[in-house]
Amino acid sequence: MPWRWVGERGLRLATGGMTLARYQQLVSLNLVELEDIIPVDGSILLILRPGASLPDALWVALALSVSDSGCVFGRRHDIPVIYDGADLPMLAVQAGLAEGDFIARHAAADYVVAFLGFQPGFPYLRGLPEALHAPRRASPRTRVPAGSVAIGGPYTGIYPAEGPGGWQLIGHTQTRLFDPQREPPTLLLPGDRVRFVAA
Length: 199
Fold this sequence. Notes:
By secondary structure, the chain is an alpha+beta fold. Helix content is 18%, strand content 33%. The chain contains four helices and 13 strands. Strand 1 and strand 2 (10-14) form a beta hairpin. The protein is elongated, with a radius of gyration of 18 Å.
C-alpha cells in the first residue's frame, strides 16, 4: 500500500476505493500509538501520539486485504429536510426531471458518510444517484446558512455552520450536525448511514 510521511507524526495511506473498509479495520485495532485516524477521499491520515513509534500490528493489518462490502458499520440517521434550496429548480431542469421527482430520488437514496471535512462535522455523503450529480458552482456563495443541504459533484452534504460555500443548495434541515458540548461533537461519523426525509 503506497504511503508517505506527512510532517513528523502523520502517515498518509493511499486507499483508493477501500477507504471506509480500511478505516473500519484500523479503528477496530484500537492502537494506543495512534492519536487519530482521519479518512478522506481515497486515503487515510494516521496521526501518531507524541513520541510513539509505528506499531508492528499496524503493518500486519495493512498487509491484509479488505473488502468494501462490509464498510457500512456506523449508526443510522434519518434527517428531515425541507427541499427549498435556491439551486433546486435549475438542478431539476439540468437532470431532466420535475422538481418533485428530483426530490424523491434524493430522498430515496441510501447514503454513507465517506468522510468529514471543509467545516467541523461537514459530511461528504456517498450514494447520490448519478442522475443528480452536479458540479460545484463556478462562483461560491459568500454566505451559506447552517443546515443547508447541498450537492457537490458525486456527493451530497450538509453545512453544519454558516459560512462560504460552493455547492448547489437543494434544501435545509434543523438537525444540528456539530455541537462542541456534545461527545462526540459531530453527529455523523465515517461509516454512518443517512436517509433524508422530505418534511
